[in-house]
Known about the structure:
Blueprint: H1 2-17, E1 32-37, E2 45-49, E3 54-58, E4 64-68, E5 79-81, E6 86-88, E7 95-96, E8 102-104, E9 113-114, E10 116-119, E11 122-126
Antiparallel strand pairs: 1-11, 2-3, 3-4, 4-9, 5-6, 6-7, 7-8, 10-11
Amino acid sequence: LxxxxxxxxxxxxxxxxxxxxxDKNVYTPKQLIEAGPVNSFQLNSVTPFRGGRFYLTRLEDxxxxxxxxxxxxLGCSIEWEEEKNRFICPCHSSAFAMNxxxxxxxxxxxxxxxxxIIENGLVKVDDGTKVERERYSKDQIEDV
Length: 144
């Protein structure tokens, strides 16, 4: 019984060490998702792209940011609460502003985001490059 437990323990350790988990520098090829024409997104709007792992947000000033669907606390999927104009995590009640900033902990930092590119009047999101951040700043927005 002791040998079996030892073998299982070693298997778990090797699985963790060689799984790639925790390696934040894993390269993911660029995956541009065409979200749609710029003028199809109203100011102060949030559009979910579940297949793309993000919410595309158009802020009041017209800029775009693509926010990760994952809470920065434990990775639960967040939901948009339109009536309260915020994102909420159903697991531990973290709340985030429309730009991804933390409004209510326990989330330790702003939502991660994906780069947005505007090309020929079309909004595209680089779904292969998730960017971690502590808080929102204007340079994370793609202006029209």
